Amino acid sequence: xxxxxxxxxxxxxxxxxxxxxxxxxxxxxxxxxxxxxxxxxxxxxxxxxxxxxxxxxxxxxxxxxxxxxxxxxxxxxxxxxxxxxxxxxxxxxxxxxxxxxxxxxxxxxxxxxxxxxxxxxxxxxxxxxxxxxxxxxxxxxxxxxxxxxxxxxxxxxxxxxxxxxxxxxxxxxxxxxxxxxxxxxxxxxxxxxxxxxxxxxxxxxxxxxxxxxxxxxxxxxxxxxxxxxxxxxxxxxxxxxxxxxxxxxxxxxxxxxxxxxxxxxxxxxxxxxxxxxxxxxxxxxxxxxxxxxxxxxxxxxxxxxxxxxxxxxxxxxxxxxxxxxxxxxxxxxxxxxxxxxxxxxxxxxxxxxxxxxxxxxxxxxxxxxxxxxxxxxxxxxxxxxxxxxxxxxxxxxxxxxxxxxxxxxxxxxxxxxxxxxxxxxxxxxxxxxxxxxxxxxxxxxxxxxxxxxxxxxxxxxxxxxxxxxxxxxxxxxxxxxxxxxxxxxxxxxxxxxxxxxxxxxxxxxxxxxxxxxxxxxxxxxxxxxxxxxxxxxxxxxxxxxxxxx
Length: 549
Ligand SMILES: Cc1cc2nc3c(=O)[nH]c(=O)nc-3n(C[C@H](O)[C@H](O)[C@H](O)COP(=O)(O)OP(=O)(O)OC[C@H]3O[C@@H](n4cnc5c(N)ncnc54)[C@H](O)[C@@H]3O)c2cc1C
Ligand code: SF4
Description:
The chain has helices spanning 20-28, 44-47, 55-58, 131-135, 145-159, 185-196, 241-247, 298-308, 377-384, 389-399, 443-462, 528-548, and strands at 7-13, 33-36, 68-70, 86-87, 91-92, 100-104, 202-203, 251-254, 258-267, 270-279, 285-295, 325-332, 347-348, 365-370, 403-410, 419-427, 433-438, 467-473, 477-480, 503-504, 507-512. The protein is α/β, with parallel strands linked by helices. It has a single domain (7-47, 59-548), classed as FAD/NAD(P)-binding domain, CATH 3.50.50.60. The strands form five sheets. Strands 1, 2, 8, 9, 10, 11, 20 and 21 form an eight-stranded mixed β-sheet that branches. A six-stranded antiparallel β-sheet has the order 5-4-18-12-15-14. A three-stranded mixed β-sheet has the order 3-17-16, with helices on one face. A hairpin with a 2-residue loop joins strand 9 (258-267) and strand 10 (270-279). Helix 5 (145-159) packs across helix 12 (528-548). The structure holds flavin-adenine dinucleotide and iron/sulfur cluster. Flavin-adenine dinucleotide is lined by residues 13-18, 36-39, 66, 105-106, 108-109, 112-114, 116-120, 226, 258-259, 296-298, 301, 305, 481-482, 514-515, 526-529, 531.
């Protein structure tokens, strides 16, 4: 479908946490905004299967996937073989000596990957902004925690974040808008194990409603957020920033609009963007003009569209990619805990979130109790139980509801073997090169995985759950939910792609407002809240500049 107008004040490409807040802020101040979104608009009340009998097999109702490929595979270091992904029903899940590429879990649709997300809303540890200065690692962010703090509060109020009064290393100017959720029964059991180990298990900070808010009811604790919330209870961008952006009357959202190229004009060495080309659902190409363009396609698709538009003046677009360092272990507890009741990751151990090179790896991490894959009978049957016939039925009777897990995420540091580039051979439906992901784990990531493996197992054991039935880790599988870094933000145009107001060095009317701009990944915090805060700040700075004329 063509856009309603030929020219806009700003075109935003992508409608996830990077695009949605930016579009809203500009539209709320009277700017004419067009959002191009490659995916469809999902209707939470009709499209999600959580209230249907076959919810466990249905999963998320994807209607559009953007094609990408993978580069070289990393050879597994046998020294860390104990980190291999495994379950009781199938044994080792990767029987080769190479790290397998499983998936980059992006959702294409209005709201982006928050349609899939579990609502965790973490501010970054204030020290994670200064990895170079404080710990001599990687790089510093060009802005600090204090600069982002008012924007964190603004986002938390819009999406509805529930959390405790205090979270270590994250000073706040205002309380969370919603009271924290009570811990699920399974988390209360894990809490006892944590106490035995001298660890604090605290309520997690989540954009999941603990009371009536945004005209939506409180959460029903069904734990199914990754399948899409049919009650609009989690703060995904489609039910938070998108409706308020459209209510301004200044924001048009085009779905199934796949942006292919950013148009750049070069007059005597001065570059500026003039608009965007996109393909509609029928494969017809359109060109729309605009004064500003913000790219927010996620850390894999954003470098792709920039590279396909020949925008890469310092050859850094696509470099410094960071993926998810994760470890998860599931074990049977002698008591039936029904860990699938509650919100996913309702609590968190922040003990090791502060960076600390003395641990043998410099970055931070966090651990959380989780139901993991223990969501319903099909998962129990396929993953945790062996045998056939009566034996199997007996196993199901005996163990269903007994699985509980701990999952952790740690800092990932950029390295030279890890990047996003254009695939030299594979093309998308329109004949353009697709993104190619290559990702290798470094020593710090392997050491942090080892640490998470040991501490998670210790906590489960102290909680009484010691029969391990599944482990999943990024040691032998690339399975990335949090990705960042491919358009690094920084003050120096030689070592970064965008400046601290997210404007492209050398092309001031082009912005990148998504997770691509993170200079470092943080120590296991979920990124959406920070992406949204950065996106609102970039919009504010742009509006201030425009006011100044
Ligand atoms: C299972 C799962 C659970 C998660 N849980 C959490 C959590 O609890 N908390 C948290 O903070 N984070 C969580 N995340 C991560 C979080 O969802 C992402 O980090 C975040 O959505 C990234 O935001 P983004 O704006 O960078 O990109 P995205 O959210 O991926 O949005 C990019 C959008 O751009 C569109 N797009 C791409 N290319 C084009 C193009 N050429 N033209 C037009 N449109 C295009 C895509 O269709 C997509 O809609 C989770 C992720 C997954 C997969
Ligand atoms: S746990 Fe709550 S927020 Fe998540 S899908 Fe269920 S009702 Fe929605």
